[in-house]
Structures are given as structure tokens and as C-alpha cells.
Design goal:
The chain is α+β, with helices and mostly antiparallel strands. The chain folds into two domains: about 1-105, CO dehydrogenase flavoprotein, C-terminal domain (Enolase-like, domain 1); about 135-294, Beta-grasp domain (Ubiquitin-like (UB roll)). The chain has nine helices and nine strands. The strands form two sheets. Strands 6-5-9-7-8 form a five-stranded mixed β-sheet, with helices on one face. A four-stranded antiparallel β-sheet has the order 1-2-3-4. Helix 2 runs antiparallel to helix 3. It is globular and about 65 Å long. One FE2/S2 (inorganic) cluster binds near residues 177, 181, 184, 185 and 186.
């Protein structure tokens, strides 16, 4: 089986989808043996376009079949109107993206434009391991470690991790830019992965190791990215800087000698409204060189 994932959004990373679709076709001798079509951002939860999947099964790989499957898929979408797009636009985009994706799979182009080794900001030892929900969401105090120090929070269960850090742990280095996963200003490390604290429920911190920008320097020594951001003038108002520093530091943990393209991938989820990106990219490149030399 081969598949593709299409996301329609302002940016590829982090920015919330206007719509997204995951398409998988199991093809045998020019006939579709099985199909899976999953849609995001068009219903309260991710949904399968079951009727379209059934329609495709046993069909040939023709343009007409894909056109009809895309039309059926569009009817499965029940999107809302919001600032990112109207419901009508979203439905139409589901149709267009589904048709495009199915053709790309048939024609063998489904991986075009995708990096073969994407930067995940999951550090060196990335795992998909998750702890049981009972451990993650405690009824009692949230016991956690932040920047190597133990904390116990008896309130804040209904907050985001970002608010817990700023309001309860009094660690205000982590910033709130958008509070909805678009800007990356709230990036912290959670169990060795970069996450957006504004999208993480505070109880997820229970039993976890968290690092914020306040914990990036060790023993009074700035992290290499902190040094090079200063030297390159990669900071103006500084509001986005904690997020950029955390993404950059995690990139350099994942790949100590990243290419320019990998640096750009790593910071696609971070927005800066005043410095621009050249100095930031140069600072990260320089930090990588510095780490290589030590
Ligand atoms: S991504 Fe903007 S505040 Fe979290
Ligand atoms: S330095 Fe101002 S938003 Fe980036």
C-alpha cells in the first residue's frame, strides 16, 4: 500500500490545518484492493470517509473514479466556518486535495516535496512511547520536574502547560503568542521532545521532565544557540526568541551539523514578526559549527 498526507494551511509546520487528508491505496494489478481516506479539521474529530473508501474498493485507477471518490469524500466533511476558511471553501478543498492525492499515489508522485528524513524536534532518541492516561492525568497534585527542579501543583489541572509554567511555576520566559499552536513562542521540551506548551494540557506534565528556556543554560554557561543569537543580532523585540531557542537547541540535539534546509525545517513552526529569519538561520548554523568544534 502507498499513501500520502496533504495539509492545507498557511504553513506546513504547526499552523492549524484548514483541512488535511491522509490517503492510502492498496493497489494490485491496476485495481484498488482497499482504500483508506481520513480527514482532519472538517469535523469535531478525525473522520474516515467510509463511503468513498467503499466506493474505491475494486475500482480501476482512472481519473473518473478519482473524481467521483473525491466528490463522495467531500460530502463526508462537515466543517465549520472560522477565520481560517468558510465551510464551503473547506468542503471544496477536501474535494480538490483528495482528487490530487489519489492521482499522485497512482502516478507515483506522492512523496514529491517531502524530506526523506524530516526534522521532528524529538531529539536523538525519538520514541513514540506514551505513558498510560492514568499516569498522565492525575486527580491529585501534578508532580513534575522543570529544569531539573521538582514541583508539585495542587491546582492548575484545567490549564494549559503554558499557563501552568507562567502562572504557577512563575517561569515567564516561555511566551504566549497565539495560544493556538500557530507561532511557536511557547515551545518547551517535554520528555525530550519539543512541544507547544499552549496545546498541552497541564496534567500531562505529571511525571514528566520539562525544560524551558530558563533551563537551557547549564552551570551559568549559555547554550551555544543563546550565544550565537546574541552575536548575530538574531533578536529584536525578543518575544519569539524563547521559542526559536528551544526549537534550535532541539534541532542541534537531533542533528549536530544540520544543513540550511534542515534548519529551515526546524523553525518552520516558529514565527518572528520583527527580526526576519536570515540572522536567526545564520545564528543556528554558527551554533552547529560551534558544537562541532567542541
Ligand atoms: S504556538 Fe503560539 S502560543 Fe503556543
Ligand atoms: S524578535 Fe520580535 S517577534 Fe521575533
Amino acid at each position: 500500500a502507498r499513501g500520502t498526507f496533504i495539509k492545507l494551511a498557511l504553513r506546513r509546520a504547526q499552523a492549524i490545518s484548514v483541512i488535511d487528508a491522509a490517503l492510502i491505496l492498496d493497489i494490485e494489478a491496476d485495481t484498488i484492493k482497499a482504500a483508506s481516506i481520513t480527514l482532519g479539521a472538517v469535523a469535531p474529530t478525525i473522520i474516515h470517509a467510509v463511503e468513498a473508501e467503499q466506493y474505491l474498493t475494486g475500482k480501476p485507477l482512472t481519473d473518473d473514479v478519482f473524481e467521483e471518490a473525491a466528490r463522495i469524500t467531500m460530502n463526508a466533511a462537515k466543517p465549520i466556518d472560522d477565520v481560517r476558511g468558510s465551510a464551503a471553501y473547506r468542503r471544496e478543498m477536501v474535494r480538490v486535495c483528495t482528487q490530487r492525492g489519489l492521482k499522485a499515489i497512482r502516478d507515483g508522485h506522492e512523496q514529491n516535496g517531502m524530506p526523506s528524513e524530516p526534522i521532528l524536534l524529538w531529539g536523538k532518541e525519538s520514541t513514540n512511547g506514551t505513558r498510560p492516561a492514568s499516569e498522565q492525568f492525575p486527580a491529585a497534585a501534578i508532580q513534575t520536574t522543570i529544569n531539573g527542579k521538582k514541583y508539585s501543583f495542587t491546582s492548575g489541572h484545567n490549564k494549559t502547560l503554558l499557563r501552568l509554567l507562567r502562572e504557577d511555576a512563575n517561569l515567564i520566559g516561555t511566551k504566549e503568542g497565539c495560544a493556538e499552536g500557530e507561532c511557536g513562542a511557547c515551545t518547551v521540551f517535554l520528555d525530550g521532545k519539543a512541544v507547544m506548551a499552549c496545546l498541552v494540557p497541564a496534567p500531562r506534565a505529571h511525571g514528566a521532565e520539562i525544560v524551558t528556556v530558563e533551563g537551557l543554560a547549564t552551570d551559568g554557561e549559555l547554550h551555544a544557540v543563546q550565544e550565537t543569537f546574541i552575536e548575530h543580532g538574531a533578536v529584536q523585540c525578543g518575544y519569539c526568541t524563547p521559542g526559536f531557542l528551544m526549537s534550535s537547541a532541539m534541532l542541534l540535539e537531533e542533528k549536530s551539523n544540520p544543513t540550511r534546509n534542515e534548519i529551515e525545517q526546524a523553525i518552520t513552526g516558529n514565527l518572528c514578526r520583527c527580526t526576519g529569519y536570515y540572522k536567526i538561520v545564520q545564528a543556528i548554523e554558527d551554533a552547529g559549527n560551534r558544537i562541532q568544534e567542541t
